[in-house]
Every structure is written in structure tokens, then in C-alpha cells.
Design goal:
The chain is an alpha+beta fold. The protein is 29% helix and 15% strand. It has an eight-stranded mixed β-sheet with strand order 2-6-5-16-15-14-13-12. It has a four-stranded antiparallel β-sheet with strand order 1-10-11-7. A two-stranded antiparallel ribbon has the order 3-4.
């Protein structure tokens, strides 16, 4: 999910650390999808209590907890970034600002926690990953590619046969992975207000909301109705609906539902602290593009699967060298990502254009092999395999996305190049 409209009047998140008032629960239950994702008080409730509003598949921690080590590096808090609205600030200063609505920030190096702050939430609290969850879909599909069950250069309708005889004919799995389909379902600010827009209809279907022109729709039907607007492969066009196409693809190939598949292939190998939650559409499809919840440390554990320290939090290597190499080396061009709506927006978020492009459900990949994924309301997942480094954070802020600007300065600070 991408950035939403202006943030409404806010209650300081500190007031919600130990719970929410009943009146806010009522407001959240009555909210439409725009309000749920606008970044206000209702969003704060929904971010941390999603299972109260959606059917939820709970993936338990099946392994004994594999605790993260501790090696505090307070100098990380002194790293500076140029914020979007308030000039240069250190990370410590940024997190201390109540009006910037940061909730948690965690840096893990070589399997050890080197920086951890929870200014406005508790360590055990579950929180939505938002679009930082999209690599879960990329990972499963890449596993199926490695096993020879999917040829990424074949039309996706080879496997997802219910999409045959639609505009999806001829669109390859690789184009879906890289959000380069040319299909008319791109997430834009304008799409929120057009009831005929497919991106809006995707979210309404997932939440069981009634579309003003069509009533309550099923997600797969909405996706099948998408029309082509240009040739595939021309530009990066960000769309959460494409991640959901990957979910349907994987389910068609494996013949099992997504939560069971992800549990079997990924989460059951992880020595997590608590359960991972996949929130479901009314008809049982996991909204893996963003409606996934866990605590912050388990969010970091997912990122660590892509690092050399995977064996400190998992009993089996989940992300193969082959999969990691595809993400980092089979990258399209800088012109490709900048030609889309979100390429320049992503550059603004991180404060630099020095990345190569997006890749396989990751928003940005750099020359040094580092990878980043953004989430709505300023969630973040940054993985540096070469530095054995993971940075994750939770926020409830659409009005200022400056939290993203600290990750590259942290990674390139020299602190982790020893």
C-alpha cells in the first residue's frame, strides 16, 4: 500500500501505549478504507488491532525461540539525515519527536541487536508491516521458480488458468514480480477517489466493503477485470494488486492456501518470539501485499533470512543463494524505475537517487546489493546482505516520511564495514 492523503488531527501515540479507548474502536469499526489508511487515530488502532476487523490466519512459532544477541551501539542514534520538513536531525532526535509518530526502530547486525527504541509502542505489540510484506510473495514465487514449478518468462496464465482469456494473457510472472505489467491497476493518490479504479476496488474487496457502483466484489474477480493500458516491461508501475496475483499464482501451482504454504516453507523454520498474522479477505485470500502483522523483532527476523546470519534465527536456510542473486543482480534499469509514478517518489523518501531500480517485490536495490521495501504510513524494511545488517521500523505517519531517510546513512556509516 502506498502513501495516502493528508493526515487528520492526531492524538499523541504515547496516549495509546497501554491501550485504546472504546470510542476509537467504534470509530475504526465504522471507518471506510480511506480513513483506515490515512495515518490518523483510526489508522493507529487498525495498525495494531487488525485481527479484530479481518479474518486472520495465525502462524505460530513452531521452533523454540532463537533469541537475538545484544551489542548496543549508541552511536547509531547520532547518525544524521536531512528530514523532509525539519532540516537535519539525528535518529535519536527524530524518534523523540512526538509529532513525527515513530513507534519502534530496530537495527540488527550479525544477529545482534545494536539499536532498539520503542518510543510509542511496546516490544511485544503486533503491528502491520503494510507493503513491507510484499517480499513474502516474491520469496514464495522465487522458491517455486527455483524448483522448476514456474517458468518466470512464460505467461502467468499458463499456471493461473482462471485468468485466461483476459488482458492478463501474455503477461509473464517476471513482469508481475517487477511490477512492469502495463496493467491498469497502479496505486496512485487519485485512485483512492475513483470508485471505478481497480486499485481502489482491490482494497474494497479485501476488506469486504461495498463499491458504490458494484456492491461487494471478490478480489479475484476484480483482478481478472483489469485492463491493459500499455505494453509490459516499459516502466515500474506500483500496484498492490500485482502482489495478490502472485498469491493466487502460488496457490494455483501448489494447491494449498497461502498461510499454510508460507508456514510450511518459511515461518515454521524461524525461531520467532510470537505468531505471524496473515489477514484475510472475506473469502480467505491472504492480503500478503501489506496486511501482515508481527512484533518488530520478528519483522527483523524475516529480514535476517536474507543475510549470512540466517542461522541465528532459523533452523534451515530459507532464502537460497540463487534467490538472493536473482533479486540483487537481475535488476532492471534506473530509467525503468524513474519512468513510473513511484520511482521519483521513492527517491524523495530516501533522499537519494543512487539506487539502481526495484526488483522482485523489493522497492529499491543498490549497487552494493542492499535492498529496501517501503510500507504505508512509514513502515520500513532494509536488508544489507554484504554487511549482515537489517533495519526495520514501525510508524503511523503519512504526513512526513523522513524515517526512511536514515537507513542508507546507517548502512553506509562505516560502522558495519569492519
Amino acid at each position: 500500500m502506498q502513501q495516502s492523503a493528508a493526515t487528520p488531527e492526531r492524538t499523541p501515540l504515547e496516549k495509546f501505549r497501554h491501550g485504546f479507548p472504546m470510542e476509537l474502536e467504534k470509530q475504526t469499526r465504522a471507518a471506510g478504507y480511506n480513513e483506515l489508511f490515512s495515518g490518523g487515530d483510526v489508522s493507529a488502532y487498525f495498525n495494531m488491532r487488525t485481527s479484530e476487523f479481518m479474518n486472520t490466519a495465525v502462524l505460530p512459532s513452531r521452533q523454540p525461540v532463537m533469541p537475538l544477541g545484544s551489542r548496543p551501539m549508541p552511536e547509531i542514534g547520532s547518525i544524521k539525515a536531512e528530514t523532509i520538513n525539519d532540516g537535519e536531525m539525528t535518529l535519536d532526535q527524530f524518534l523523540a519527536r512526538s509529532d513525527l509518530y515513530a513507534q519502534g526502530y530496530l537495527v540488527v547486525h550479525k544477529g545482534e541487536i545494536v539499536y532498539e527504541q520503542y518510543p510509542r509502542m511496546n516490544p511485544e505489540d503486533a503491528h502491520l508491516w503494510m507493503s513491507c510484506a510484499k517480499p513474502t510473495a516474491g520469496l514464495i514465487v522465487d522458491m517455486l521458480i527455483s524448483e522448476g514449478k514456474i517458468d518466470e518468462n512464460q505467461p502467468i496464465t499458463t499456471y493461473l488458468t482462471e485468468f485466461k482469456n483476459t488482458d492478463w494473457d501474455g503477461i509473464t510472472t517476471r513482469d508481475v514480480l517487477d511490477m512492469a505489467t502495463g496493467m491498469d491497476l497502479e496505486d496512485t493518490t487519485e485512485s483512492r477517489f475513483d470508485p471505478d479504479n481497480v486499485a481502489r476496488r482491490v482494497y474494497e474487496a479485501e476488506l469486504g466493503f461495498s463499491n458504490v457502483n458494484r456492491g461487494v466484489e471478490l478480489l479475484a474477480d476484480v483482478l481478472k477485470s483489469t485492463k491493459a493500458k500499455s505494453k509490459p516491461g516499459q516502466a515500474f508501475e506500483y500496484a498492490s494488486g500485482l502482489t495478490q496475483v502472485l498469491v493466487l499464482l502460488a496457490e494455483a501451482v501448489e494447491g494449498e492456501r497461502w498461510p499454510q504454504m508460507f508456514d510450511r516453507r518459511v515461518w515454521s523454520k524461524v525461531g520467532a518470539e510470537s505468531a505471524l498474522q496473515f489477514h484475510l479477505t472475506p473469502d480467505g485470500i491472504a492480503a500478503a501485499h501489506g496486511l501482515v502483522s508481527s512484533n518488530l523483532r520478528d519483522f527483523a527476523r524475516f529480514g535476517m533470512l536474507y543475510t549470512p546470519s540466517w542461522n541465528k534465527i532459523a533452523v534451515e536456510k530459507v532464502v537460497s543463494d540463487e534467490i538472493l542473486a536473482r533479486i540483487r543482480s537481475e535488476v532492471r534499469t534506473h530509467d525503468f524505475i524513474m519512468a513510473g509514478f513511484d520511482g521519483p517518489e521513492f527517491a524523495e523518501r530516501v533522499g537519494t537517487e543512487d539506487f539502481i531500480a526495484n526488483s522482485r517485490q523489493w522497492d529499491l536495490v543498490w549497487e552494493d546489493g542492499d535492498m529496501m521495501k517501503f510500507g504505508l504510513m512509514a513502515q520500513g524494511l532494509y536488508v544489507s546482505p554484504a554487511r549482515d545488517l537489517v533495519v526495520v521500523y514501525f510508524n503511523v505517519n503519512n504526513g512526513d516520511l523522513s524515517c526512511h531517510r536514515y537507513v542508507r546513512p546507517i548502512a553506509t556509516s562505516g560502522l558495519f564495514d569492519r
